[in-house]
Amino acid sequence: MSPLRRPVNRHASYHAHLYFDARTEALARGLVEQARERPGLSVGRLHRRLVGPHSAWSCQLSFDQQQFDGVIFWLEAERDGLSVLVHGVTGDDLRDHTEFAYWLGEPLPLKLSIFGAEADPGLDQHKE
């Protein structure tokens, strides 16, 4: 298996999806509260259901390339075992969640068929 792709700052804007379940929800809520205190970081809802291509409960954070290094450093330091998908936002959802996708922690499968992909490649979107 190829190593995980670490986040690379090469886009104008980004999403980070924090993944959690019933066991880790309190941890995720704490991280989201910290995120709300970070200037310029946009925080979405904490979804206790599957949304979009995500295979776990999630919360989306939005940030730009100027915030990238600080947000990635903070997420890596504070995620405490939570999986985080970081991807560029280019307007091409399929490429954003495959070619431009990076992981902090354990990668989770994504339901790429919602973007018109022929077949879901499972975890292959995190390989180089």
TrEMBL record:
Pfam families: DOPA_dioxygen. It comes from the Bacteria. The lineage of its organism: Bacteria, Pseudomonadati, Pseudomonadota, Gammaproteobacteria, Oceanospirillales. Keywords: Dioxygenase, Oxidoreductase. One of its GO terms (molecular function) is dioxygenase activity. This is 4,5-dioxygenase. The keyword tRNA-binding does not apply. InterPro entries: DOPA-like_sf, DOPA_dioxygen. It comes from Aestuariirhabdus litorea.
